[in-house]
């Protein structure tokens, strides 16, 4: 990613350290620096502006309360700020998917429709809104275990390692299933 001169001059690590010391102006500077970008990240994930705004608000509360937990040896301060927002958005999607399943008395069709809205925008994701019936049909052609792996990865936001642990399969197998499933979905979608 290419940073503008304004972004490259902003000291994220020092700002987080100031937040950890209780400097409210540091949080305000961070908000002014990144809130629009964080809103974009959240909105791409949840596809709902009002919900994304709530997520960004919650993210800044969490950044404020947990700034002292930032560890520079594990990554950049800016990356940490973005990961806080991304994880909150993914948790929101995960919780929304659970609510849909509970309200729907287990009907998979409605669950698939609702959770497809939460697919992350990555090179592997599809725009299900172009033809929602088509992608549902394509998903149904996948073996259930492979379909579940795709949902866990792109709807629930689980890592491949988490999926492997959750379903009790080797990591390499899970990676292969997801890769092959995405290839099959691309071919099916044309």
Describe this structure in words.
This protein has 190 residues and is mainly alpha-helical. It has two domains: 83 residues, Rna Polymerase Sigma Factor, Chain: A (Orthogonal Bundle); 84 residues, Arc Repressor Mutant, subunit A, CATH 1.10.10. It is 73% helix and 0% strand. It contains ten helices and no strands. α5 packs antiparallel against α6, α7 crosses α10 and α9 packs across α10. Keywords: Sigma factor, Transcription, Transcription regulation.
What is this entry, summarized?
InterPro entries: RNA_pol_sigma-70-like, RNA_pol_sigma-70_dom, RNA_pol_sigma70_r2, RNA_pol_sigma70_r4_t2, RNA_pol_sigma_r2, RNA_pol_sigma_r3/r4-like, WH-like_DNA-bd_sf. The chain has 190 residues and is mostly helical. The chain is built from ten helices and no strands.
Shape: elongated
Give helix and strand order, one letter per element, not per position. Answer: HHHHHHHHHH
**Rg from Cα:** 19 Å
Q: What is the helix content?
A: over 70%
Oligomer: single chain
- Helical stretch tally: 10
Largest sheet: none
Question: What's the architecture of the largest domain in CATH terms?
Answer: Orthogonal Bundle
CATH fold-level topology of the largest domain: Arc Repressor Mutant, subunit A
- Secondary-structure class: mainly alpha
How many domain units? Answer: 2
Uncertain runs with pLDDT below 50, 5 residues or more? 1-6, 100-125
Cα distance, first to last residue?
Answer: 31 Å
């Amino acid at each position: 990613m290419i940073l503008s001169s304004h972004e490259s001059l902003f000291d994220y690590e020092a700002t987080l350290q100031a937040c950890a010391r209780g400097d409210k102006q540091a949080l305000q500077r961070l908000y002014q620096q990144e809130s629009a970008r964080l809103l974009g990240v959240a909105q791409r994930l949840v596809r709902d502006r009002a919900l994304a705004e709530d997520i960004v608000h919650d993210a800044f509360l969490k950044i404020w309360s947990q700034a002292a937990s930032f560890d520079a040896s594990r990554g950049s301060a800016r990356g940490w700020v973005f990961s806080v927002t991304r994880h909150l958005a993914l948790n929101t999607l995960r919780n929304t998917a659970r609510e849909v399943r509970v309200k729907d008395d287990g009907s998979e069709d409605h669950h698939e429709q609702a959770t497809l809205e939460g697919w992350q925008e990555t090179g592997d994701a599809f725009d299900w809104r172009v033809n929602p019936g088509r992608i549902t049909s394509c998903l149904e052609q996948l073996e259930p275990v492979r379909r579940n792996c795709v949902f866990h990865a792109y709807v629930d936001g689980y890592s491949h390692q988490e999926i492997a642990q959750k379903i009790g399969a080797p990591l390499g197998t899970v990676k292969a299933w997801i890769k092959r499933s995405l290839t099959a979905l691309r071919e099916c979608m044309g």
